[in-house]
Amino acid sequence: MTPEDVRGQVFTTVRLREGYDLGEVDSFMGRVESVMSALVRENAGLREQREAAVRAAQQTLPSRNGSAERLMAIAQKVADEAVAEASERAEQIVKEAEARASSIERQVRDHTAGIQREVGGLHEFAAEFFGRLRARLYEQHQAIEAELSRLDAGRQSPDAEPGLGEATVPPQMSHPGVWRSAPVDGHRVVSENWA
Question: In this model, does residue 168 exceed pLDDT 50?
Answer without folding.
Answer: no
